[in-house]
Amino acid sequence: MLLSHLSAAKDAARRWGTRQVSDWKGNVVIKVFYHDKCFDGACSASLFTRFYRERIRRQVEFEYQGLLHRAGALFNLDDFSGDENAIVDFKYLASERLTWWFDHHESAFLTDADREHFEREESNRKFFDPDFKSCTKFLATVAQSRFGFDLEPVAELVEWADIVDGASYESAEVAVALKEPAMRITMAIEANQDETFVPRLVELLAYRPLGEIVELPFVAGQMGPLLERHERSIEIIRKHSECVEQTIYFDVTGYDLEGYNKFIPYYLHPESVYSVGLSKSSFRVKISLGSNPWTPETKLINLAKICERYGGGGHARVGAISFPPGEFAKATEAAGEIVAELHEWAERHHGR
């Protein structure tokens, strides 16, 4: 389902799809906010940039800012200072300052009021569809069908964003091996602490082949240390994880493992259906929930609904919850409750 001011959009889409791209040379700044530490978020920001330049306005300056799920307020309205402001692959902001929005997360709206605000929209610039695996593919689909955007030059980017965000790898071994350029770029995005790194990638992802990007010095120079860190993280999670009643639980809060490969638990415990991981960074304690992409089980619990009860969100098969750094005990308690709920679900629905 495409939840987007559908009554007025058809006529508006035809007008936008056939309009002449503006060559107005004013000093226009478009600020793009994207899901940070996420390959799909970076790809969405890059694709939006190319789409905007090719179908909306050529002479424009872009600024980029990452957004992360954290306890407390997610947005600072003062940051939305562009002539136009866009959010891609992140929650909805019910504000007149938001010009463009694309998202595919089931938990896209913080409140019912936010959803109602979105549903009243008639701008033909804000779009939501939780049935898409990736925001990049969703954005590409809307850009092509409603604005006449040519997808052929960005086909590789769209394909890999869908593979990465949809966990559509052949096996856990392939997902952990990190052989493909897209997977190595994903590793760098998820683990990087340099605030300038992802914006530099955003300027390239929709314009150059991924195989070229991964060989650029500012990317290639990080591969050695990051691959070593990746191998260490496999051993750390091996040591600190267990699988009971088809549910993996691990606590790596004692290590610097922000941005570990989320498929490692399933690689180590292929019999699993769910995983619950506790990690820590400077600004949050995080509970990561996931379901094994390769499980034969079909009657799976909706993880987004679980996360929403604790103030988090995500998709039906993957989600997360953030707590303030000082609430480790509260996060640990919540993780224990969730593990118990998953045990009960597995016992009732998976026949074990």
How would you explain this protein's 3D organization?
A hairpin with a 2-residue loop joins strand 6 (241-244) and strand 7 (247-251). This protein folds into 2 domains: 6-169 and 194-210, Alpha-Beta Complex (inorganic pyrophosphatase (n-terminal core)), CATH 3.90.1640; 230-349, Diaminopimelate Epimerase, Chain A, domain 1 (Roll), CATH 3.10.310. The chain has 352 residues and is of the alpha/beta class. Helix 2 crosses helix 8 (197-205) and helix 4 runs antiparallel to helix 5 (155-165). The model is unreliable at 1-19 (pLDDT under 50). A 6-stranded mixed sheet has the order 6-7-8-9-11-10. The protein has a 5-stranded parallel sheet with strand order 2-1-3-4-5. It is 43% helix and 16% strand.
Architecture per CATH nomenclature, i.e. the level-2 architecture of the largest domain: Alpha-Beta Complex
Largest sheet: 6 strands, mixed
Strand sequence of the main sheet, in spatial order?
6-7-8-9-11-10
Class inferred from helices and paired strands = alpha/beta
Instruction: State the end-to-end CA separation.
Output: 35 Å
Cα radius of gyration in angstroms: 20 Å
Q: What is the CATH class name of the largest domain?
A: Alpha Beta
How many independent structural domains? 2
Mean pLDDT across all residues, rounded? 91
Strand content: 15-25%
- Helical residue percent band: 40-55%
Number of strands: 11
Unreliably modeled segments: 1-19
Pattern of helices and strands: HEHEEEHEHHHHHHHEEHEEHEEH
Q: What name is given to the CATH topology of the largest domain?
A: inorganic pyrophosphatase (n-terminal core)
Q: What is the subunit arrangement here?
A: single chain
Query: How many helices?
Result: 13
Which word captures the global form?
Answer: globular
